[in-house]
# Entry
Amino acid sequence: MHSGHVRSYPRGAEGLCGSSIRLGFTNPLDRGHAHQVGRKNPAAGLPSDAQDEGNMKELQVMFKAGGRSLRLGTLADDGKDILFQYSSDAIASAIEFSPIRLPLRPQAYPDQQNNYLHLMRVPGIVYDALPDGWGLVLMDRRMRAKGIDTATISVLDRLAYLGENTMGALTFEPADRAMAEVRDLTIFDMASEIRELLHDDSRVVLAELAIAGGSPGGVRPKAVAFYNPETDQMSTHEWRVPGGHPWLFKFPTKEDARFSCALEELYARMSDRCNLGMEPTKFIQLPDGLTAFGTRRFDRYAAGQRVHVHSLAGLLHANFRLPSLGYVDFIRATRLLTRDNREIVKALQRCLFNVVMNNRDDHAKNFAFMLNEQNEWRLAPPYDLTYAPGFRGEHFTEVGGEGKAPGRAHILTVARAGGLKDGAAEVLIDSMLATLTVAAFRQEAARLPIPAHVIDQVAKVMEANRQRLVK
# Structure
């Protein structure tokens, strides 16, 4: 891609990435399924055919969270495999940055060929920093506008392109310095230019949005900006918003209904009734019929410091594009990471909310965990809550073995997997049902510009979901 942005080393050089990345070790989680990369001798450094192929690319992965900064490790691409090795500083810290599939160790990952091919061949912790959907569209169009053939670039090139323009706590060095500085954009500017981009692959628009919206994941167009809800000041430049905090704003696509942002705001308000701990949100109506939905970012502290966020998909190396996990997996991961009964209860509440409110686009990237300043794992606040019928009417994350019509027994199966007693789970189910009523839904919906037929449709589905949970 850009010579010098991702360091390249001639094949045949001694060692890998100028370090002692060693090959051929087996992940204890996958014993019996090892994939030997290159030589079987773990001290060999390079694959045996190193002299015969291209260049070695290397990228440093930095961890910057809560005022801490260290080199997490090194990514290396030899044209055949992408390897990751923790740095000595990361190992010395004794912080488990990705404890389930990528525990600290001096040897390189991966151990088997199919360990994370579905994650663009990088570990889940790194994959979480990459955009998908809208962010990837922006990245590809911006690269093509600069004359870059996106079919020939590697995932390391994409990470270098992001540099520090990432969600979460990971950044990448050396970064692609060719990124343009974004001008000061208002929310209306962003909405207008996104609409223009959806109709016209404009180089000017691409340059403006590449930084403002190039990192968040998900299908719908997004942009990040600083916002102060008390003064209603907003800007893509922090210094122009006293008391501002990083927010994420979503905009409808051409295919989305005009009320999609209002509907997501409605779901946020219903989650507030359940005390799910969602970050503050705002529905914004703009000129020319444009709308936006904003939510405060939880991957940043108030002072702007980064927070380490790890999605369930990244944590388990799961393919979030396939229905590969269930809520049993989610609650077990919550129990394993947090060791806190309060967090387990929160996980079950998320499950109940999605079941009652028919949020069936509940894939593994829509759940996440955060590492706090005390190095304790906690559930990240809920996000991407909205009405979603699901593929063939099923939950992406199955509920106790059921995807289409989960009932009370299926919820109890999930609760037991988290170590919750039936009695406590029954109380929680009844409490959520008492809060998530159709009357409450209609009351909140009346305050937003959502068509009556849409409210009626959601209310009907919601009541059917509720009835399956009634004892």
